[in-house]
Amino acid sequence: MATLQRSPSAGASLARITAPLSAALDRLSPRERQAVLIALWVVGLVLLWWLAVGPALTTLREAPARHARLDAQLGQMQRMAASATALRSESTAQAPGRDQVLRALEAATASLGPTAQLSVLGDRATATLRGTPPAALAQWLAQVRINARLLPLESQLTRDPATSGWNGTVVLSGPGLAGGG
To answer: Minimal CA–CA distance to 168: which of 160, 157, 154?
Structure first.
């Protein structure tokens, strides 16, 4: 019968490692021994802080700002998803008639006030802009896209330094304008 040889236990391995350290501490005077033990405790606490407590506190400190950023991103994504769903449902519906498109286009253009003029010729509508504020132009384009279902074909816009607005033309077209003259 073969006999099984056991590997030394963990306690025996630890005793072999700590025996020289214990012997070295025993050779020191009580005051030196106390200083070495205090130094070891300080090093151990610094390592504990550096490896465990510090990173956890940093994560906790940064969590509210990160949470707010992620909430803002989530809100933006939800708004974009709702807009995409609305546009998808509108694109499957029948295109609006020419009269309905023209009413929606005129209503959107009226919101720009005296900074825009509209002319419709055939299947294209041209908006001439003079000093139109950027936010108002963005809102107008969204309204025209959603309500009148028109998209810009061409745009020639320049920034007006005097009014900080846009000057130029935007040519729009869509299926609703093609339905008659």
So the answer is: 157
